[in-house]
Structure formats: structure tokens, C-alpha cells
Amino acid sequence: MSRNSEYSNPILPLTSDDIIGQPRHFNETHSVTGSIESQSTIPSVSTYAQRSSHRSRMRKIRENFNHRFTVPKYFRRMMVFGSLDFETAFWEMMNLIQNPKRVYKALYYQKQTKNKWARDDPSFVLILGFLLSISAVFWGLMYTTGIFGSTEADFIHDARSMYDPNNSNFLSKYFVFDSILEWSYCFDIHCNAYLMIWLCLYFVQFFCLPLLRMNNFLSTLVGNTLYFFALSYYFLITFYGYNALPFLQKTEYLLSPIIGFVAAWLVLSLSGFNVANYMCSAYFS
């Protein structure tokens, strides 16, 4: 029995395969363990990339939103009165009445220094808006009955002042230019020209209206002349403004409405039609 058991369970000596096989089995186990660990880290890296991509998209959305809805610098300066140059604005108003060319000559020097035709200071617009509002209130209180009539008159006057036919799209149909025309500069020209309309038709006419509404030739002549002068001066200052731009051609066409105003002034005055009386009745009847 002992002899048979010795043959059935022989004790074999260790070989080189047995010695080398153990490390090989260890390397295989280590590689499998490393692959499992690397696979376990893949979801965390993927999650981090997704979060980074989401943050970058949200940042771009915020930047686009802020870029589109940012208040322009021109309007932000209206809230900071310390940065407003009212002295220059009053100087421009005085010279627009006396010598308009001097104002646009100063704007030419501004173009050379700041590379911009339009004003970067809203003082002129604020003063003009204040004058229009005050005059509209006085017109409403003096020549209308009730709060509703006064409010309606204010709305009509302010709506007229904000209408601006001098824009780049309008001019591109009639004038040739090869440069970008600033819309803000067109608005500045309109405000400059509207100053004389305010002076003649809002300020002077307010005090002279009882005289202008009389039924005689002198009242008709003075009233028609007042409107003719205000409208003609509006187009004259508009011409000076666009004529200062070196890339515009045929700007003299802006003076053509004055010819029609002269003809209308002659016909209406000789026929006894009082424009001042008619406009007052249309607004405040």
C-alpha cells in the first residue's frame, strides 16, 4: 500500500517554469487590476469635462447677454452730472444762433482728435429737452383747458421734437458717400437745427401769439415770416452739418426746400392766410 501511494502521488522537483510562472501570474493580475482602476476613473474625467463645457457655455451666454443689453456710454453719462460739459453746450447754442459755421468747425477739430463726428457728451440734448419740456408745459397751461389738454399738448410738442428725418438711410437715397455715416451725428445735426425752431416757434411765438392771431395783414406777415425763418434756418443748419463731412457729395440739395418756403411765404402772405393762427387753432382748438 505504501509503495502504491508513492507512485500515485509523486513529489516532483521545482522547475524554471514554476519559478517564472509566478511573477508572470502576478504581472497579469496587476495589469488586470490597473485596467479596472483606470476604467473606474473614466467616469470621473468625463463628468469633469461635461461640467467644464457647461460652465463655458453659460459664460458665453452671459457675455452675449451683457454685450447686447449694455447701456451705451452716451446714456450712462446722462446720470453722472459731474461729467457733463454744460459750458460747451451753451457755447454751441449761442453760436448756432449767431455763427453756425463756427460750431461745425469745432466739430472738425474734434474729428481729428477723437476720430468721431458725433458728440460724446449729452449736455446739449439734455438742455434742449429741458427747454422743450418747459415750453410745452407753458403752452399747455396757457392755451388749453384742463390737465388732459395740457398733457396732450406736451405730447404733441415732444413728439415733433423727437422726429428726425436726417438719418443715414434717408441720405443714402439722394447723396453719394463711401464712408460710414454715424447715426448719432445725424441726431446731433437735427438737435442743432431744431434749436432755432424752438426759439422762434416755442419761445418767441408764445409771447407774440395774441398779436399774431389778429385779423390784419401785419399779423399775417409777421406770423408767416416767423415760420418761414424758423424752417429755413433748420435746413440751413442741416446743410452746414452735412457739408462738414468730406465724404458727402451734393449736400447743396438740402437747401432746395428753402425755395419752396419762399414761394409758400409769398403766396400765403398775399392771400391773407395766417400760418401762426392756423397752427394755434389746430393744436389748441
Automatic annotation (TrEMBL):
GO CC list = Golgi membrane
Keyword terms of this UniProt record: Membrane, Transmembrane, Transmembrane helix
Membrane topology category: Multi-pass membrane protein
- Kindly list the residue ranges recorded as spanning the membrane: 124-142, 193-212, 224-242, 254-276
**Compartments, as annotated in UniProt:** Membrane
BP GO annotations: vesicle-mediated transport
Concerning InterPro entries, the annotation shows: UNC-50
The family annotation for this protein states: Belongs to the unc-50 family.
Q: Which PANTHER family match?
A: PROTEIN UNC-50 HOMOLOG (PTHR12841)
Tell me what this protein is called. Answer: Protein GMH1
**Species this protein is from:** Pichia kudriavzevii
